[in-house]
Design goal:
This protein is mostly helical. It is built from seven helices and three strands, in the order H-H-H-E-H-H-E-E-H-H. The chain has a three-stranded antiparallel sheet with strand order 1-3-2. Helix 3 packs across helix 6 and helix 4 packs across helix 5. It has a single domain, classed as Winged helix-like DNA-binding domain superfamily/Winged helix DNA-binding domain (Arc Repressor Mutant, subunit A, Orthogonal Bundle). InterPro entries: Tscrpt_reg_IclR_N, WH-like_DNA-bd_sf, WH_DNA-bd_sf. Pfam families: HTH_IclR (PF09339). This is Helix-turn-helix domain-containing protein.
């Protein structure tokens, strides 16, 4: 019996792509001293702040508990403040986040250029399909 999931299974091919992308993206985001996820969390905050942990989790596609742990680490580093409003934790940027955000944005730009060079005309279609299909699967 020969399995075909190597090329036809949405779960397997997406996970394999993500493992590869993560290894390469980690190299591009090394100047931040953190994994890319922390940069994306901070840049989402740069786009709109303050935000609740729930809002950020929904935007970024993380579990609330994972996002909360990442936010705790960033708070310990002095980049964000976290405060409770009822049962909800709200996060806001602190002035000390500016150098990190400058570096993160430079890393994102370099990563974007690299992926555009490597993926070429497939990149817009791929990212559009990933976004659309993510929305479809989230609706289950």
């Amino acid at each position: 019996m020969s399995h075909h999931f190597y090329e036809t299974c949405a779960y397997f091919t997406a996970a394999r792509y993500m493992r590869t992308a993560e290894v390469v993206a980690n190299k591009f985001f090394e100047p931040t001293g953190m994994r890319p996820a922390y940069s994306y969390l901070m840049m989402a905050m740069e786009d709109q702040h303050p935000q609740t942990v729930s809002q950020l989790a929904e935007t970024l596609g993380y579990e609330r508990s994972s996002l909360y742990r990442m936010a705790q680490k960033l708070a310990k580093m002095g980049y964000i403040s976290m405060y409770l409003e009822g049962k909800s934790a709200t996060i806001d940027l602190l002035p000390a986040s500016a150098p990190f955000l400058k570096t993160a944005n430079q890393c994102l730009e370099a990563w974007g250029s690299f992926t555009t060079d490597k993926l070429g005309t497939d990149k817009p279609a791929m990212t559009s399909l990933l976004t659309t299909n993510d929305e479809k699967l989230r609706g289950l």
